[in-house]
Amino acid sequence: MAANVQDVIMLLGDSITQGGWEPHGFAQQLAYVYNRKLDVVNRGMSGYNTEWIIPVLEQCFATRDDRAPLPTVRLLTIWLGANDAAQPPTRQHVPLAQYRANLRALVRTVASPDSPRYSPATRVLLLTPPPVSEPMWARRQAEKVPPRALDRRFDVTRAYADAVREVAGELGVHVVDVWSAIWTRAGEKEEGLAEYLRDGLHLTESGYNVVFEILMEAISTHFPEMHPDKLQPVFPYFDEIDDEDPRSSLQKRDAFAT
Amino acid sequence: MAANVQDVIMLLGDSITQGGWEPHGFAQQLAYVYNRKLDVVNRGMSGYNTEWIIPVLEQCFATRDDRAPLPTVRLLTIWLGANDAAQPPTRQHVPLAQYRANLRALVRTVASPDSPRYSPATRVLLLTPPPVSEPMWARRQAEKVPPRALDRRFDVTRAYADAVREVAGELGVHVVDVWSAIWTRAGEKEEGLAEYLRDGLHLTESGYNVVFEILMEAISTHFPEMHPDKLQPVFPYFDEIDDEDPRSSLQKRDAFAT
């Protein structure tokens, strides 16, 4: 942890991750609870699929040789599929088998010892894409100028969510199952989705609240050492500053060194 | 701009800056509008005064020698005074003359060519502390266990806000005058402050909206080249990705190289 930097949580994904900086978005809520402990960097790119995000990750995640002065990524969330699951001829479409291969490539970029970006200090979580509401997304597509056809299907996105769980099981990575959490809370009914989806594809505040809740549950369960309550602030709380010698009590600390 | 990092906006301050990660806080709103262009790092530390924040800045801002692989801080906001203006014997108190000297030291840390942290690429903005509501803060202090006396005064914080403007004028740094903007919107009446202050000292969503508005105005006026609309996303918008050769169109770019 060099001067100028703190360790970070990196959020890799599509527009649903990018929108995480909205008020009550999951990035905003993470930044709030990890304030003074870890920085949150949002690498969500609207419209991106797994195919396009692979070179992005390679350019956002330092190689081992470059890493020394740079922030350590303590948690990497990988959340794609909403665009991969778009129907051809939509150019965002990535076939299911290739989607699985891309997820493996993304995880291995940081988790495989033979990768130049291998980072044993980085915890990885795979998130499933949220369910799609076909009627809502069809309306949104029809409103565009010129109008567009429905290019996302409930059953297809469900199959992509299934693939995330399969790949995660195969690689031994933990899953944050956004698809199931939202579908369950919607009462497994199409009309229940309006509370969680703003346009049939992207999330409302309630949707992001679900994501934040199950993400924090996953951290508590699988990586309890990085729950915000277990970390110390990098600089001390003000009532811990030594009145006699403030400067020596203001030494930068490792958030994890508690 | 090395792998893993993007240029950043750094927010230096006290609890009012730290609270910027609340929904609709000014950090959240900056992160939202600068998404995919600049990262926002919050270096707000609850209860800190200028005296304590000086060693913090020295440890958060890289020296010239260390800087090469690290993110460039493109904008540094310095927002303190709410705690410096606390009345003795409150240990956060910093006398007005020392507060002025500390503000000069903070600005010179990055703006003075003979500083080891001199950074001509960094734009600096000084923010004035918000006005204090004595009745609201007295109530909040009385509710604490054990109850505490009123330790912030409207007139004293106003004098600290005046000092920010004076130091800024002296050093040729631009000011974001939070004190005047909120006091004006409050109709220059004590009872008007409740809209903008949550406890007489810290900001409500409306208060942060004012800060975000005048901060963006300052950027537009003084540093128009770094308005978010003038920056390109570090990775291209998805409809700019080359279908034939996606990887070559996915080269990381300088947000400022438009």
From TrEMBL, chains A, B:
UniProt entry keywords in alphabetical sequence: Hydrolase
Molecular function GO labels: hydrolase activity
Record organism: Daedalea quercina L-15889
Domain SGNH hydrolase-type esterase: 11-209
Name recorded for this polypeptide: SGNH hydrolase
Cited InterPro entries: Iah1-like, SGNH_hydro, SGNH_hydro_sf
